Amino acid sequence: MKYVAFDPFKHLQYVESVLMVPISKETRGIVALDSDGQPCAVILLDGWTHNAATCHIAIQKPMALRGLLTEIAEYVFNICQKQMLIGIVEGSHGKARRLNDHMGFKEIYRIKDCYAPGVDQIILQMKKADCKYLTAEQRLQEVA
């Protein structure tokens, strides 16, 4: 598995096929490429604030997950020096909920009936201090 920076010229068609996320000049991310050089997973980042970024995840090959999560944690928390990741999930999307729980995201707010009657929007958060994809020392490092 190879991990590369998201490049809209190379990866836009793939991203549009797996995520319903508008791409802007602030969109960044990491794409996992399989042994044939084809994209098989992506985490995009947008909604940048001084302290956080919002992430969007699509995984077609689960074997890409661990390395991709380590790469994105390193990028967001250490290179970009943010203290949290935000996720937004449709409450009825069980697979996405399980993935976010596995990654270590915690539910912080729920907007009732946001997507449809009976279908909530769930706001999730992963703090740097709680990120299991960083070393203990990295989790404790403060923003300069």
- Major β-sheet, in short? 7 strands, mixed
User: Quaternary state, please?
Assistant: single chain
- What is the count of structural domains? 1
Rg (C-alpha, Å): 15 Å
Order of helix and strand elements from N to C terminus: EHEEEHEHEEH
Q: Helical stretch count? A: 4
User: How do the strands line up in the largest sheet?
Assistant: 1-2-3-4-5-7-6
Fold and architecture overview:
The chain has 144 residues and is α+β, with helices and mostly antiparallel strands. The N and C termini lie far apart (33 Å). It has a single domain (2-140), classed as Aminopeptidase, CATH 3.40.630.30. The longest helix is centred in the middle third of the chain and has 15 residues, at 65-79. It has a seven-stranded mixed β-sheet, sandwiched between helices. The model has no long low-confidence stretch (mean pLDDT 92). The protein has helices spanning 8-18, 65-79, 94-103, 136-140; strands at 2-5, 28-33, 39-46, 52-59, 84-90, 106-116, 119-127. It is built from four helices and seven strands, in the order E-H-E-E-E-H-E-H-E-E-H. A hairpin with a 5-residue loop joins strand 3 (39-46) and strand 4.
